[in-house]
């Protein structure tokens, strides 16, 4: 909360407490994005692998999965992830992605 003239109150106030946390989250998000971009070729190779192709079939309707991502449908995303990670191919692929992206 700001005082008259746009100056934060002594001690920073509740809004100021969120700034470092938000910046940290932004940095982590940016770091993840850089890692994805830097490893795009390797990620594509994993997607094109035999395991990647089998996992793609397990995803089912790609439009439905994309819509669940866009809308934040946690229940649908959970179902998809459970289906994928219950398979040997999904487990291997998840492990390879984890190793790749650290």
Explained architecture:
By secondary structure, the chain is an all-alpha fold. The protein has a domain at 61-102. The chain contains 6 helices and no strands. The protein has helices spanning 13-38, 40-48, 50-59, 62-71, 74-85, 88-101. It is globular. The two termini are 39 Å apart. Residues 1-17 have low confidence and may be disordered.
Features:
6 helices; mainly alpha; 102 residues
Largest sheet: none
Q: Give the % helix.
A: over 70%
The percent range for strand residues is: under 5%
What is the helix tally?
A: 6
Distance between the termini: 39 Å
Oligomeric state of shown chains: single chain
Count the E strands. Answer: 0
In short:
79% of the residues lie in helices and 0% in strands. By secondary structure, the chain is an all-alpha fold.
Helix-strand blueprint:
Elements: H1 13-38, H2 40-48, H3 50-59, H4 62-71, H5 74-85, H6 88-101
Helix pairs in contact: 3-6
């Amino acid at each position: 909360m700001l005082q008259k003239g746009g100056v934060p109150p002594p001690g920073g106030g509740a809004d100021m407490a969120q700034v470092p946390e938000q910046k940290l989250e932004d940095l982590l998000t940016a770091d993840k994005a850089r890692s994805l971009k830097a490893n795009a070729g390797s990620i594509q190779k994993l997607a094109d692998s035999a395991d990647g192709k089998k996992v793609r079939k397990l995803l089912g309707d790609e439009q439905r999965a994309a819509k669940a991502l866009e809308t934040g449908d946690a229940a649908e995303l959970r179902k998809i992830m459970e289906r994928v990670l219950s398979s040997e191919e999904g487990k291997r692929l998840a492990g390879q992605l984890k190793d790749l992206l650290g």
